[in-house]
Amino acid sequence: MTDQSAGRVALVEDDYTLVINRGAEAGVAAGMVFAVYGRTGRVVTDPDTGRELGTIKREKLRVRVFDVQPLFARAHTFVETDDFYGLLRFPFMAEPSEDVVSIDVGDTVELVSTDTVAVRRDTG
């Protein structure tokens, strides 16, 4: 089994859905939450030596897996509210906002939660 904790965006399906290049064969399960990071980050340089110390990654958004195939998984953007529903940790689709986040094929995804709660599927 390969590592499910890191992968890449393989496809941007629509404004709220993306596909990551990790699936059931890598241990990915419905309910897992991944952070999506841009391909480039901010370089941190030591002011005394000029030596590059590393890069700070910029998290673009978080997605929750709802459909797992052997080699890929589909995930929705979501928010957790601070109200009563948030106490129960129900995922809700993110409200459209004026802040546009651009997700690109090849962006890095990293596992942030393995809380694989049952994901409700709409049947109708």
UniProtKB/TrEMBL annotation:
<protein>
    <submittedName>
        <fullName>Uncharacterized protein</fullName>
    </submittedName>
</protein>
